[in-house]
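On clarity, I found the account of how folds are encoded harder to follow than it need be. What matters is that the chain and its backbone geometry are given together, residue for residue. For the editor and my fellow referees, an illustration may be useful. For illustration, here is how one protein appears when written out as sequence plus structure tokens:

___
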Amino acid sequence: MKLNPTDYIIMAYLKSAPMHVYKLSEKLKEDKVDSWIQYSIPHIYYSLRRLKENGLVSVEIKSAKSKPAQKIYSLTDNALKLLDGLKEDDELISSEQFFPFDLIIGLAQRLEIPGKQLRKMIESRIDFLKSRLEGVQRDFRTRETGSQNMSGGERLAFQHRIRFLKGEIDFYRKNLKEFK
């Protein structure tokens, strides 16, 4: 089974304690994980189903008198072994990033996108990136000043995301003049 980022997020959080989806999603929100890696609640459900089918998580159904039954997810021994190997996963360590917006830029001539329109698209991209940067910086400050200590790895992930967004904004600003 090829794991995706959501699978890794789920397994990393379940390693600390078994939990149900609501608690997991609350923990992810509290830790501002979406500031440095992309995931969604539907992907969490999809990943949990895949992880269960592949023997990496187990499910226990707990019922309470006043609440509907809850599915509590926990890691299996196979998942723990897989997480141990994550530290040396060459594919994760040396994966290269490609950006969907580069598709538009790279194919602009073939798609017959006029320079003025491409310029507007780049300006929109800059606006989006600036908005995202503000959100990530806000989340970073919230985590830094929060009641829970932020790990060095979390700090690095936030700082990397911030630096990346700033670099991308700077790149587009500098190259905007080419599109009139």
Notes: Residues 115-145 form the longest helix (31 residues). The beta strands are 57-62, 70-75.
